[in-house]
Amino acid sequence: MKQLIILLLIIILGIIGYGQYSKYKRYNSPNVDYTTEKKLDIKYHNQETVINYYKAKEALNSFVMLQWTANDIDVRTPKDDDNETKHAVGLYAEKLAVVKFYEAKLEKSAILKEDGISNKEIKFLEETGTDLKEYQHSLETKKIISMFDDTQKLSYGQTSALIFEVQKKLVQNGFDLKIDGIYKIETRTAIKGFEEKNNLYADGYLDVLTLDALFE
């Protein structure tokens, strides 16, 4: 009789313990909140995107918790393959995709800012579809061409940063000459050769058309 009572008590305690465990498991989903180790630009030029990112994260976390507590489904690592689970996992994937979409924008912006690109420049890149390498090349080209003064013709022995950059470009185009920033016969010959090759007026001097063709 005593052993029967002890057995019944063990069974009752087991039932109570399982109930408590189920209740705990239901309301304590492990690591439910979505996290990322990626560096994101929270000062992104479009703050609405940042807000939408946080909203999407909250919607995702709430959905994961709801499925866990209400339907006992862990949509992140589902154990079952029934229709209800498949549907829940599909909705989870859609919500996660939205988070990833905003996350990718903020991550890319953070990377660009590490290279010294400003919010204004990032906005320009996004709106025009220009990639960073192309944009930086464009800025470099504008700086070089801005050194050109079409009112002054190059003279023998003249030295300048512009001539140095022109010589570098001529070498890249297959011309053999010394890169020293000095305008000499070999530099004039190379410029003339480049102009002939590109159907430009070939006089060996710089003009806007020659510079545009050389730095395009």
Description:
The chain is mostly helical. The protein contains 8 helices and no strands. It has 2 domains: 32-127; 131-214, PGBD-like superfamily/PGBD (Muramoyl-pentapeptide Carboxypeptidase, domain 1), CATH 1.10.101. The protein has helices at 2-27, 47-71, 83-114, 119-128, 132-145, 161-172, 185-197, 208-214. α2 packs antiparallel against α3 (83-114). The chain is rod-shaped and about 120 Å long.
From the spread of the alpha carbons, the general shape counts as rod-shaped
The number of helical elements comes to 8
The secondary-structure element order is HHHHHHHH
Counting DSSP E segments of at least 2 residues, the number of strands comes to: 0
Tally of individual domains: 2
Question: Which key terms come to mind for this protein?
Answer:
216 residues; 8 helices; Muramoyl-pentapeptide Carboxypeptidase, domain 1; mainly alpha; 2 domains
How is this structure best summarized?
This protein has 216 residues and is mainly α. It contains 8 helices and no strands.
What order do the helices and strands come in, and which of them pair?
Elements: H1 2-27, H2 47-71, H3 83-114, H4 119-128, H5 132-145, H6 161-172, H7 185-197, H8 208-214
